Amino acid sequence: MTSAPLAARLREVAGPLFFPVTAFGPDGTVDPDVLRAHVRAGIDAGAAAVFACCGTGEFHALTIEEFRLAVAAAVEETAGRIPVVAGAGYGTALAVQYARAAEEAGADGLLAMPPYLVVADQEGLLNHYAALAAATGLETIVYQRDNAVFTPETVVALARTPGIIGLKDGLGDLDLMQRIVSAVRTHRPDDDFLYFNGLPTAELTGLAYRGIGVTLYSSAVFAFAPDIALAFHRALDSGDDALANALLDHFYRPLVELRAQGRGYAVSLVKAGVRLQGLDVGEVRTPLTEPSAAHVKDLIEIIASGRTLLEEHADDRRIATVHGTPGGRA
Hints:
Layout: H1 6-11, E1 17-18, H2 32-45, E2 49-52, H3 64-78, E3 84-88, H4 92-104, E4 109-112, H5 122-134, E5 139-144, H6 152-159, E6 164-169, H7 174-187, E7 194-197, H8 206-210, E8 216-219, H9 226-238, H10 241-259, H11 265-276, H12 293-322
Parallel strand pairs: 1-2, 1-8, 2-3, 3-4, 4-5, 5-6, 6-7, 7-8
Helix pairs in contact: 2-3, 3-4, 4-5, 6-7, 9-10, 10-12
């Protein structure tokens, strides 16, 4: 656990938010050593925070003992250098158990995922997240998606709830998000409530979310191609539209189109990508399935295309610098 409040550390980040996969060994059990290696590689590559055992980390497939082991491995590897946020979900009672396990393992915060199965009204959702936030001393980010979709008024109430510091949006309704941002700003003008773009392959919608002031985003790509994810993050921050648009057109859009070809590919394709980089993190657990061999081949080609773009862009910058126009294109 780090000493500074999580909200303060996430407010100004210099790199992508890293959502590691959970490593499983040949016998199917959690492999903390490989997970630590995966986290270490992310930190070395420039991750701003580690979100362990969340969607990409197959939270849904972990027992509470495995969850505690995996979160502890991430905490040990980060050693306070960057914050660790752990997933928590299911019904209120079970979500509280996972939250307390995350706190015991040394996490800095929680990503509160939607309740399991049921569709609750706004009052019930608010009660659920308030109870979860009150169960530990960890700062909590609420994840909007699927059966947990909030009105602007509910988000205002969440922002007023002690311990809740932000909203991660996995729904993608920009009209709703703009109204949420506006409502919180109106009712809490001095509030520093955080917002995250939490869509799968969030980079694809990064420019759109920035238009409503949402700059933080989760990066599944960082798990298997940190060089590409970091280059895109820097391009957005620096206004390098040429590189950002090239990566959107020739890496991120093809990746999203590939992801759409298989159920659960938002997780299994990422895990396949990590294995392609030389780290054996095992396969996904059921009910998810592995991507087909043809789709893995497509993924290899998409990654290669992204890295070729980075090389070409670096060459352009070198040529431009020689001609006295640093940062431009020749």
